[in-house]
Amino acid sequence: MLIVLEYLREYCTYFHIGQNYGISKSSAYKAVKWVEDTLVKHPNFALPGRKALNKERYEL
Fold first, then answer.
1. Separation between Cα atoms, residue 1 and residue 31, nearest integer Å
2. Quick check: 32 and 9 in contact, CB under 8 A?
3. Per-residue pLDDT tens digits for 1-55
4. Less crowded by CB within 10 Å, the N or C end of the chain?
5. Kindly report the CA angle at 30 between 26 and 34, in degrees rounded to 5?
6. Residue 29: which residues within 8 A CB-CB, separation 6 or more?
7. Is residue 33 a contact partner of residue 17, using CB atoms and an 8 Å limit?
8. How confident is the model at residue 60, as a pLDDT?
9. What pLDDT is stored for residue 29 in this prediction?
10. What DSSP letter does each residue of 7-39 carry, written as one string?
11. What pTM, to 2 d.p., does this model score?
């Protein structure tokens, strides 16, 4: 989790994150990708679809 938080906060390269934690850049990428994919699947993090956004825009 610290790897992901560092990536999101500082936008370091996977190489540098891997160096900080003693892992390969591919392992750092996989960790970040897994957390991002998991969050996207959860309903609390779901974004409204394009139609909902357009409807909202024209109702103002």
1. 8
2. no
3. 889 999 999 988 999 999 999 999 999 999 999 999 998 889 888 777 777 777 7
4. C
5. 175
6. 14
7. no
8. 54
9. 95
10. HHHH---HHHHHHHHTS-HHHHHHHHHHHHHHH
11. 0.69
**Residue 10 neighbours by CB under 8 Å, 6+ apart:** none
Distances (CA, A) of 25 to 6, 30, 35, 36: 14, 9, 16, 16
- Domain ranges in the chain are 2-59
Measure the CA–CA gap between 23 and 6, rounded to whole angstroms.
14
Contact between residue 28 and residue 21 where contact means Cβ atoms under 8 Å apart: yes
